[in-house]
Structure formats: structure tokens, C-alpha cells
Cystathionine gamma-lyase
Amino acid sequence: MNARGNTRGFETLAIHAGQEPDPVTGAVVPPIHQVSTFKQDGIGGLRGGYEYSRSANPTRTALEECLAALEGGVRGLAFASGLAAEDALLRTVCRPGSHVVIPGDAYGGTYRLFAKVYAQWGVEFTPVALGDPAKVRAAIRPETVAVWAETPTNPLLGIADIAALAEIAHAAGALLVVDNTFASPYLQQPLALGADVVVHSTTKYMGGHSDVVGGALVTADEELGARFAYHQNAMGAVAGPFDSWLTLRGIKTLGVRMDRHCANAEQVADLLSRHPKVSQVLYPGLASHPGHATAARQMKGFGGMVSFRMSTEAEAVKVCESTELFILGESLGGVESLIEHPARMTHASAAGSPLEVPADLVRLSVGIEAAEDLLADLEQALA
Ligand SMILES: *Cc1c(COP(=O)(O)O)cnc(C)c1O
């Protein structure tokens, strides 16, 4: 049983949580309430609590309840993008002078938010290799309001021990925030391991079909949830009704999709590990990965993201431009396989910073196509 008192299985919650058949028509899928305002029966006489769609919209509520159930939280909030969710979280917990410990290989957009936006407002941050708890403890200051973790990380697939970080953060009176985008709640549930807030780019595995941009915050703390909801309304970067509906539709199949993403990624990692032109494979499912034991303990599967290194930048670029099935593109987590060169694409903005990624690195988002087709495509691109 999770914090919400749900005893139902994950796949059941994904299909039903927050999604009772419509009381008016019996429609089994929540309607897209594409509307800005709601009729009041007398001043303040709200039907179902809805008055204006920035504050709340029934389609978004369905998504938010489903998100809370899947992460085992009490409150879910849906935003226009993952970065909008991160912004609302930081605006809620930081003041000028606050300090946050962030991953040494944080998602590039998260790093940019700290380095280029929040730094201007006096919020300080320290990038730390989260795989080493002693370094995290050493980076904490009296002003530290949060430890921000990402596991697995993008694009190096680093693993952090969520329970260990929760202890360190809480001993210092700080929150533990976990960006759970790469794992999804099907593979990993940070709140149950002691995290205070889960952040998502629902653009990725949750939506799952590369057709919508969105973000979310989930917490198991009622009071924190109410503060997030206040900022969500006060700042206004909410998920629209159609985007909420698309995300909910994607979530219904999250479990079966993740099983296939994991199975395909394992085969891809195995092929790459045996390939003479590949110098290193970064996949937490491999016994050689330094975070393998921690990942095996806190994740139900190792996910669909695989990164690998060639020997030179030119070779990495050539592989990225030689696949036929893997589509060259940014983003991840959709049903279709994608390939990219982080140093020149998703992480180009990290060049020259402590978060710069190796130039010979290639990142794969392994989709749910037939595994033999994916393996054949990589074989020919590496030939
Ligand atoms: C994509 C991504 C984000 C940002 O989400 P957007 O929906 O693009 O704003 C945050 N964290 C991780 C790990 C991501 O992959």
C-alpha cells in the first residue's frame, strides 16, 4: 500500500486512477474539457470546484490524480513542460541566498536553469557526483534547501542511491528532489525510498509517443503539495486540457511499454558491449556499470536509455548519421528509437562547463520496435 492508501497494482492505477467514467455521459475516457471558465450557480456557486482553467481544469485534475497515484504521493501537479515544473518547484523552496546540491551531470536544461536563471536571483548551487554520498555530505551548507538528484542521469546513465541521499538531505534539514524522468514510476518510486518531491518531464516516457511536451511534480507531503499548487496557479505554466489528455492516454500503456524498452535496451547494450569499435557502454543493466548494484536494488528494470563511446568524435558523429531506423533527433522515451550526439546536440550548452560531455559519446533512446531490426540497424551503422 502506498501513501495514498492505494492497494491496486501499478498497471491498474495507470488505467483507472483519476479516470472514473464521466458521471454525465458514462464516457470511459475523461473528456477533453477544452474550456477556460465555468458557469457559477450564483456567485461562488461552483460545480465540482472549477472556476477558471489556470487554477484547475477537470482533464488536468484527472492527470494530476493519476500522477500522484503512480508515484505513491498525495498530490500531483501537471505543468506545460518539465522545466516549468522545475521552475515552480525552485520558486517554491528557494529564496535569495538558498543553496542547492545538483548532479555533476545534471540534465542540461536543469543546469541552465540554475546557472543562467536562478543564479541571477542569488540562488547558489554546487554540482556534485551523486554516486559518492561523502561528496554530497561535504557539499551541504547551512543554506542548503535541497539535494537535487537525477537517477539514471542524462546522458551518462549515472546512478545515485536515493535512500542514502534522503538520509543525508534530511539530516541537514533539506529536501530530496528526484528527477525520475529516465526511470518513470513503473521502474522506480523515489517517494517510497525517502524522496520529498519527484520531478518529471512527462514529455518522455510518461507521454511516450513524442507528441506532447509536459512536466509534473509529485509529493507525499500535503503541505508541500499545497504550496506547489499555489505556485502553479500564481505562476501559471499549467498543462493544457489536450496536452493533459494526451499524457493520460500515454500513461495507460506505460507498464507494457517500459517492459519492452528495457528488454530491447538490454539486447542493444549486449550487442554494443561485444562490438570492437565501441570503447565503452554506459548502461546500468551491465554488471560492469559502477551503479549496477544500486540500480538493481532501487529499480524494477534498467530502462530504455543506452549511451556508448566510440574512440573519436568523428566516429561518434558517423554512427549518428548512419542509422536508418534509429532517428537522429533530440528527446527520448517515445515508442520510436532515437539516436543523438550529446556534445553537439542536447548537451551543446554544457560545453566549457563542469557538465561538458565526452565528444565521442552517442546516446540511444531504444524504442519498442522489433529488437532484431534495431540490432541490425546498429550493426550496419557501426560497420
Ligand atoms: C527532458 C528532460 C527535462 C526537461 O523537460 P522538458 O519537458 O523538455 O521541459 C528534465 N529532466 C530530464 C531528465 C529530461 O530528460
